[in-house]
Structures are given as C-alpha cells and as structure tokens.
Amino acid sequence: MNALALLLVMELGDRFALMGVVLGVLLTAVAYTVYAERRIAAFIQNRTGPDRVGFDLIPQLKFLKGAIGLGQPLADVIKLLMKEDVVPENANKFVHALAPLISLFAALTTIAVVPYAKGVAIADVNIGILYILAITSLGVYGITLSGWASNSKYSLLGGLRSSAQMISYELSMGLAVVSVVVLTNALNMGEIVESQTSNPLNWNVCRNLLGFIIFTTAAFAETNRAPFDLPEAEQELVGGYHTEYSSMKFALFFLAEYANMIVACTVIVTLFLGGYQVPFWTDAPWFVQVGAFITKTLFMMFVFIWVRWTLPRFKYNQLMDLGWKFMLPLGLFNLLIVASTIVIFGNSLPLSILNLVLVALCVAGSFAAKPQSKMA
Amino acid sequence: MNSLAYQIIFYLFAAIIVGSAALVVISKNIIHSAFGLLFTFFGVAAIYVYLNADFIAVTQIVVYVGGILVLLLFGVMLTNKITQADLKTETLNPVPGLLITLSVLAMLLYTFYFRAKWVTVPVDQQLRGTVVEPIGIATMTTYVLPFEIVSIVLMVALLGAAYIARADRKVQTKEGK
Amino acid sequence: MEIGMTHYLALSAFMFTTGVIGVLTRRNAIVIFMSIELMLNAVNLSLVTFSHYLNDVQGQMLVFFVMTVAAAEAAVGLAIVISMFRNKQTINIDEINILKY
Q1: Cis-peptide into A227, omega within 30 deg
Q2: ipTM greater than 0.95, yes or no?
Q3: Number of domains into which chain A is organized
Q4: Which of A142, A261, B146, C88 has the fewest CB atoms within 10 Å around its CB?
Q5: What is the pLDDT of residues C29-70, one digit of tens each?
C-alpha cells in the first residue's frame, strides 16, 4: 500500500488528538526543563537556584507559597512575552522572523515518529529513522539564517559555527543510526523498539554501547548544548546566533533549543534504551509503557543537564578534531564490528557480552585507580 | 487511489513546486531564490511519496535540503558582503532565453500528451509498498560497481573542492618564511 | 481528471524549463547553480515516475546516482565560484570572461 494512503486510512482523528496531547506535554515539559536545569545547576554548583516564585496570584494555590519556585517558568514566559521586540535596522526582516520558526519546526516535527507505547505514535512511518535524520538536517537552517539575517558579526559567527558543527556531527550520528538498523533489522521506530524486547540485555545500549556513546555525543552537538555550545558561547559571541533576537522571537529559539533536547532524549531512548519496553514485563499495559518511556526520557534529560554543568566548553578546533578525527572513524569501526558480529554469529549476543565485560573492566579500573588519585 | 483528496493534494504540491521554482528564477534577491529552492525540494519529496518512492523522498530531503542547499547558502554568504542585507542580481538576455525555453516546453508537452505512446504496466502491478528492500538489494548486487565508482567520484570531487576553495597556501608559507 | 503518468511528466517538464530559463537569463553564478539543481530534480522526478509506472526500481537507483553527481557538482562548482570571487570580487558570469581572449 502507498505510504501516504496508509497515513490517510488509519484513524486520522486519533492521530490528531495524540498530536495535540504530545505537543501540549512537550511545551509544558520545555518550561519545566528550564526550571529543572536551573535547579540542578544550582545543586551542582552548591547554590539554591530559583525557589521563590510560586502561584500566589491564584488564591487556591496560595498554600504552596512558592517554596520550591514552581511558578518560575510561568513568570519567565510572561517576562519574555512582555519585552519589546527589537529588530535590527539593517536586518533582513523576513528571514529574521522566519529563522526561529524553522528552528521550532525542526524541533517539533521530529517527535512525530517516536512511539510512546506499543503501536502508539503520531505517524507510524515505515522509514521513521530516516525521517528523523532528514528533519534534523533542517535544524541547520534556522540557526544559519538567523545568524545571517541579523546582520551582526556575532550572530554570523555563531551561525557559521553552528552549521559547521551540525553538519560534521550528523555524519557520526548517521553511522550510529546505521549500526542500530543493522542490529534491529528495521527502519520503523516501532519495530526498532519491538526488536529490543523487554529484556534489558537486548536493548541496544547493551548490544551497541559504542553506538550509544557516539549517538549521544552527536546529539549533544546537534542540539548545540554544552560542551558543544560554541554557537552561543556567551564569553566570545555575546549570544551567538540569537544575539539580535528579543521578546517572542528569542522565546521561540529558547523553546526550540529545549524542545530539541527533549526530542533528542526521546530518540535516544527509542533507539538505544528500549523505548517504551518495561524491563522484564512483556506486553505491559499501555500506561505502564508510557510511564517507562517517560522515566527513561527524564533520565536522559538529567544526563544532558548533568553533562552541561560538569564539562567545560570545547574549543573550536577541538570540536572539529573530535568530530572528524575521532567520532567518524569510531563510528565506522563500530559499524564494522556490529555488522561482522551479525554476519559471523548470526545474533548480537557476543556484542552484549563484550560490552558487559568492557563496562566491568572500566568500573573495576576506576575503583583500582582511586587510591592513586588520592595520593596524587 | 485516485480519490478527490488525492488529486487536490497532488495539485497543491504541483502548485508549490511550480510557484517556488518560478521564485528561484525570477526573484532578484538570492536568499529568496534559496527559499524557493527549499520549497521546491520539499514539494518534489512529497511527490516522491505519491509515487511510492518513500526512501528517495527522504534521501531527497537529506541530500538536497540538508546538503546541497546548505552549501549553496554558504556560497551566497561567502560571495556577498555580509552587511548588505538585500542581495540584488539582474537578468541577462531575458527575451531570447524565454523564447527558447517556452518553445522547448511547448514541444515537450506536445510530445507528452499527443505523440508519446507510454508503456505502463497495469495498475495492480505498479510499485507498491516500501521500496527500501529492493533498493538495498539492487545496490549491493546489480549496481555494486557503479555504487563504488560513484562513491569514489564523490570523494575525489570533495577533495578537489576543498583544494580549490582553500586560500592559496603558497603565498602564506612564503610570507611565513 | 485522474492523476496519471503524464501529469507527473508535465510537472517535471515545467520544472525543467524553469531551470533552463534560470540558466539562460540569470547573471549570478549561484542562481545558475540553483537552476541546474532544479533541472536535475526535474529529471529525478521523471525517473521516479517511470519507475513507479513500470514497476521497476532501476529508475530509483538511477536517481541515487544523479543525486550523488549533483552533490559532487555543487561542491566543486561552489569551490570554483568562491575562488573566482576571491580573485575577481564578482560572480556575475558575464564579467568573468578571461578565457575569451
């Protein structure tokens, strides 16, 4: 059956409803991810973080007293919307306004093919994984064009940096994806999840640890997050590509950045952490599967935030060296290993065993190395 | 397959393709041309989905939108003064060019609609379902040699491009010495 | 009217001629590149059409090769345009005529 016809035949209403729910959840999640990021950052840096703003304006919620600052995201949004929208005089007005929309579009459309429970996805495309690669390649436009259209040195430098970075890391990302496709023998996201089964040893993070590391690192670069946040390195470029953006347009970029992060986490979960699979519980009811999916996503988001506040920013040459001289060969090597194991042994069990042994060795090594570091 | 919705969507995408292709050619502003090209590529990808070429449709977006058009945009940015927000270019010999092309178009359409006797297989035998698997098999069997050659062509082209585009290094080393 | 093979081919013809107009009438080398991409896309479209209506994936294979060549062409072409811009400060093709004399 024609791919398009398939889309039109299946309950269109349900898909639209699901889309509404997912977008609503995603946009709320973005606001609270910002809050979570600030709180976690504060925790890592031994500060308090936002803890004052509550919902005191609403009488019924007054008892909360804003003790943990849960009203902060709302206040931030209102502040952003009330600001004056400044457009530089010599900017290309049309492109300047379009760029944040492209960014947001690329961030939000990727989530369409991610399955949230068995058979539940906005669009069950049979080449879902390629669709994700295609849409991520659009993200470059928003940032490059915003940098160019603002007619500012800092913006342009940020935009150029970002596009070079995203194009470079797309390659290793693609190679990691190919290794997953070789392992699961499917291009459809649902089938990829199904093939990982409910046994965590069958999840791709076990079978393909190197691929997971490569994909996650590339996802850090694709979402322009630290340690790869050179496009908006405050100390060098003021604000990078969004230097000349204010008010609503800046809010859109902000939204796109965090939406990108959440979507990247869901994709990592789907490809490597077994998606909606509940450990040791085959055919769990749908709400348990959704719960498992959300839990895994939250964990990955925590990793994203954790890494951002732990690692310092790369220099530009280091970034390019890492991408082209290390990640790309590593990705090819990983693909070779995965493919040859599948061809020689017919299944991926040797890979899981190998990875487990490697992880055990690393853990043992880190424990063995501890006394030495204390002495030093 | 040929319901009304199907036809309407086809004409919609056809209109997008023709309109944005015209924008590419007519627009005086290069950035607008690039945007026109972006929409043309998307429209063509949508038409590919109509023709059961889902894999080609995605490749179209990855290669053309994610690769070639980004390259072109880089070209626009590098060959124009950054500070000049409106990039104007003029046309050259519009009348003879238009005449030649329109006559070519007329001939093409005449042939398509009145002369050509298209050979098609019956509707029930036309390409159905996903084509990823047959394409993969064809790439690795019948077309494996062209596939390898084309990869070498691509690599040589990229190396050559990098060599041509980089600044003249001889001058720099002389100054360095 | 039923959407048939000729519809797709006519669309492809329109795209192709638009590309030809661009190549013949524009001065800027990058716009000419864009027009060439339009023409290549038109050809791809007709190849995919034939592939669909003849139940044969060979047409789609050919599209891949066209895409690869298009990518190579864009890379080399842009490199040439950029080095030309570096030497002559212009990419208007009517001003680049040093091979003429």
Answers
A1: yes
A2: no
A3: 2
A4: C88
A5: 888 888 999 999 999 999 998 888 888 888 888 998 999 988
